[in-house]
Amino acid sequence: MATETTDGNADVEGDIPTLTMMYKIAPGAVRETNYGIQFARTVGFPSAFLATAEKTAAALREIEAAKKRDSASRRLTARRKLVLCLHETLIHAEQGGMDDVALAKFLRQLQVDFMARMEALEDGGPAETDTDGRDSEVLEGAEEGSEVISI
After folding, report:
1. Stated pTM of the model
2. 63-73 pLDDT per residue, tens
3. How far apart are CA 52 and CA 48, in angstroms?
């Protein structure tokens, strides 16, 4: 950030100092991360104030970085749970005793459900969960030849 300041004329009433911001237009992202702090430094804020502002800005950046790490970690955990649930569901389906037609229909629906939930996780949304917050790992009614399940 570049600035140009004038002190004004103290002998003339109403003549106040001015600050002119000098910008240069260039392609790409703006590199200035603490615009407000830079501005405060330019206009002469006390150094103790600037030090506190810089500490606060650093703490806020760390909190934001931790949220991003936590979010990525949660998505990875959710994907792993979804795959484990799929594995358990496939085991139950194999042992469920469904006839071939019912099993094929069941597996097609299972694939559609799994892909939709995985895409939801990849898009940053939550996968559907049971009311207790866990993914259902039970293949309900597979032994009876049910076609619809919840993973």
Report:
1. 0.43
2. 888 887 778 88
3. 6
